Amino acid sequence: MNTTDRVDMAELELAEIEQHLADMQVPRFHGRQIFQWIYRRGTTDLEAMTDLGRELRETLRDRLVVGTPAVTKREQSSDGTTKFLLQLADGHLIESVFIPDTPSQTFCISTQVGCAMKCAFCLTARMGIIRNLTPGEIVGQVRVLLRELGMLGTRFNIVLMGMGEPLHNYDATMKALRILGDEHGLAVTPRRVTLSTVGVLPALERLATEPFMPNLAISLHATTEDQRDRLVPINRKYGLQELLDACRRFPLKRRNRITFEYVMLDHVNDTPEDARRLVKLLAGIKAKVNLLPLNAAAGIPFERPADSRVDRFAAILAEHGVTVSVRKSRGRDIRAACGQLITESTRPAAGQRLAERL
Ligand code: SAH
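That is the input. Now the predicted structure with S-adenosyl-L-homocysteine docked in place:
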């Protein structure tokens, strides 16, 4: 039988696997065994799932498969950050990044091939949107990283901060989180997951009702509607004020806060006036601010501000009681840092390409 006729269990929640088995007249409890093999032991080969019994394995072999992205390249930064270039079944490439010792171990995962959000300073935006990832491809990145890094059985965090806008691929992202969270598999609790978004409002409102509620990070990046319209174009549809109102309504567990990411662009959005406006905008929101000094790249029409400007901005926030941190950029030497994920096949042709700067 052809692979495409087989059901890909990587795309399924445990209950769906059980249902498929039942449809094949196979007892449901084998679903849990298979799920444990896939997620707890990192096994994708049905032949190796020895507690299933030989006859059953033979029956299932022709009908089920566990699709997994293939590693085509692995690059390690001097700071330990490791970037994986993964190939999907249809040949598209995505990137996933392991960021060690922050102090936790963090996997930065993609949700789309490319991105539709067109943020002015982001390299992934240059790809445009190629397609959504499936739930299995989102979870598959975690499985591949666990295997490649020898980390099965260890604790890790997940940030949905790779390529793509998770709330622009809502259903697949939420299903992926349910698969990751299943207690019979990796059992990743919501507090170990952070979803970062530009603020696709209808999807954000929906997220507020989910049983699996990850930590929320908002890519704010500007303090006036005009400025945000230019930097984060979705603001023209869902404006800054509306976004902040939605954040005010967002249900937070006790002691939890929304992270506001703020990319710092030299002499664009990094002035003391911006800092003071940001303090006002965040009034009444349980917030913390994460400043991201721009990771510059060829073709990105902005500069990274001097440290003194970043420090001054941070100091103004702190003086007004806003918790602030400056993101230490990781993996810049291998182009694995924020906003630097872009896969080879879609880079501009050599003739158009500006000189590499990093
Ligand atoms: N689409 C989601 C998930 C991506 S997270 C979102 O935008 O939130 C990646 C983070 O890195 C976002 O906050 C993004 O704005 C930021 N970023 C993009 N380009 C950057 C760059 N060149 N330097 C620093 N941060 C950047």
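The pocket of S-adenosyl-L-homocysteine is lined by residues 117, 119, 121-122, 161, 165, 196-198, 219, 261, 263, 292, 294-295, 300, 338-339 (CB under 6 Å).
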